[in-house]
Structure formats: structure tokens, C-alpha cells
Amino acid sequence: MSYQIEIRHLRYFLAVAEELHFRKAAEKLYISQPGLSRQIKQMEAELGLVLFERTNKKVVLTKAGNYLKDEVTMLLKNLNDTFDHAQLIQEGMEGHISIGYVGSAMQNVIPELLLKIQEDHPKVHYSLREMENPDQVRALVQGEIDLAFVRLDKVPKGLEIRPVFEDTFSLVLPSDHPIDKENFQGLKSLEEDAFILFDQSYSPTYYEQVMRIFEQSGFHPIISHNTVHASTIFRLVENNLGISIVPSSLGLGFNMKIKLIELDKIPQKTVLSVAWNPLNRNPILEKILSKASPG
User: Fold this and answer.
1) Which three-class secondary structure state does DSSP give residue 208?
2) Which of 87, 96, 157, 276 is most buried by a 10 A CB count?
3) What is the band of 153 on the pLDDT scale with cuts at 50, 70, 90?
4) CA torsion sign, 227 to 233 to 237 to 240?
5) The HTH lysR-type domain covers which part of the protein (predicted)?
6) Dist CA 198 CA 217 (whole Å)
7) What percentage of the chain exceeds 70 in pLDDT?
8) pLDDT per residue over 53-75, tens digit each?
9) Is pLDDT above 60 for 188?
């Protein structure tokens, strides 16, 4: 079946679907409200669908309209990305890659990847966004980023994931704490201290690993604070408000009055993985993905 739908119809539909208000959508599109209403009715008639339920007080998406909103959002994004890549190619570039990452990935994995890109694909533009794990997963699904560097062992159905870097854990103490690498006898000696940890929402798998470390050390920790930001953890430790356990590589990027003791004798390791959406049509995704090798 052939539909006589133009790109403008899709943009008009999406504006109304987002605003759920014809006047506001018309203002956003710089067209008249009656003109917008006619275009939407034309689209509904062409598709044989009712996309909106209209009353005097509100506009609501139908089930078909809600489905179409998600699909059109992705369709228009892919189309815009295609035009953007075509423009870059015309300008002599290979394309653009958008990379999301958790903070610890910037200590080694991301810089190494960028060096490989610069060496093998100097005509690739890239953008970087530090994001928490759940935000990266959402951004991958919605096509807002091309690659995600996460501390997760699994992702939602439809996405792919593979490990790229295995890291040890380290104990984080204030710089003036009496325990150091030479006299450290194990975590059990710190069971009366308050711990500042990454929140479970940061990564359920990571959180379970840390809890297992405490369990194997023979005590349940006193947790005074939870956060998703490494800088917050380090700042609180620096000010003697608690101690922590973090991926060892995370300590490389901060210059604070703290010290790290690597827990290299325990079996637990934390893994950084790269995730991507196999439906992503970015023409250079596979080339860049191949550079994110396990290390």
C-alpha cells in the first residue's frame, strides 16, 4: 500500500504529539492553527487512522498515535542523521560518532579509543557525553548516542554489549587516615567506619559485587551515603565523612586529599563494557566499534 505522506506531515504530527495542544504546536511550527489541523486531518485520512482524540478541553494520543509517535521520532532522527552524515562526507569527513561513558572510562578506555580514532580515522568527528548507566541505555534505545561505555553486565533486549576492560577495586581513605598500604590488614578492621558507596541504581551488578566484598570480609557495612557521582564520593572521603570502595582506575583522574589501597587480593573485579544498538544505521559505527577492543 502506497501512502501519500510527506515529511512535513510527520513533523506536524510529531509537534502535536509532543505538545498535545494544537495552538502551541502551531506556534512552534510557525503556521496557523487551522492550517495545522487540516494537515493532521489529511494525514489521518490518508493513513486511515485516528491519531488524536480531541475534546474541548484536551488532545490525547490514541494507541495508534502513541505507537506512531515513537516510530516517527526515530524515523526523523535517522533521517536527520543521514543528512548530517551526507553533509560531513561532502566536506571531506568520514562522519560523526556520539559516545556516552561513565566517569571511570575517561581514565584509560576513552582516551585510548580516541587515539585510535585519530590515528586510523582522522576525518571522523566525535562527541563525548558523561552519563550514568541508565541514561546511556535510554540514549542508545532512542538513538541519541552511538556507543555507551557502561558498568553493566546486561542490557535490554535489542541492544548488544561486550566487555572491554577489567579493573580491580580499591579502598578509598582520607590522606591522613592511619591505615595505609603497608599496614592494611583487610576490610574487617574497618567495619566500624561509615562507607560512602555508589548507589544501587548506578549499576545493580556493580553494587552486588561490592556487597559481596563486604560479605566475604565478614561484616555488613555501615553505609552513610549513596551517590552516583565519583567526585561526591571522593569529596566526602576527603572531608572525613566516610570511606569508600571504587574501581581502581577511577582514582587516576582526581587530585584530592585521599589515598587508594588496591584490593588486588580479592576475587571480585569490576568490568567496563561497551554497548550499542545493532539497528543504528550510522555508517561508521562498525569501524569505531572495532577500535573498542577488550583490554
Assistant:
1) helix
2) 276
3) confident
4) negative
5) 5-62
6) 19
7) 96
8) 988 778 999 999 999 998 888 88
9) yes
The verdict on 255 and 182 lying in the same domain is yes
0.90 cut: is pTM over it? no
Backbone φ and ψ for 259, nearest 5 degrees, come out as -140, 150
Report the distance separating Cα 165 and Cα 269, nearest Å.
10
List the domain range (segments joined by +) for residue 245: 169-268
CA distance 70 to 250: 37
179 shares its domain with 244: yes
Can you read off the three cell numbers belonging to residue 68? Answer: 506512531
Q: Does residue 162 come out as left (phi exceeding 0), alpha (psi in the -120 to 50 range) or beta? A: beta
Vertex 23: Cα angle to 22 and 25 (nearest 5)? 65
Question: How many domains does the chain contain in total?
Answer: 3
Please tell me the distance from the alpha carbon of residue 294 to that of residue 41, in angstroms, as a whole number. Answer: 53
Cell of 286: 562498525
- Helix, strand or coil for residue 124? strand
d(CA 206, CA 209): 5
C-alpha cell at 5: 505522506
Least confidently predicted of 78-82, 202-206, 244-248: 78-82
Whether residue 248 sits in one domain with residue 190: yes
109 with 27, same domain: the answer is: no
Whether 91 is covered by a domain: the verdict is: no
Same structural domain for residues 213 and 282? no
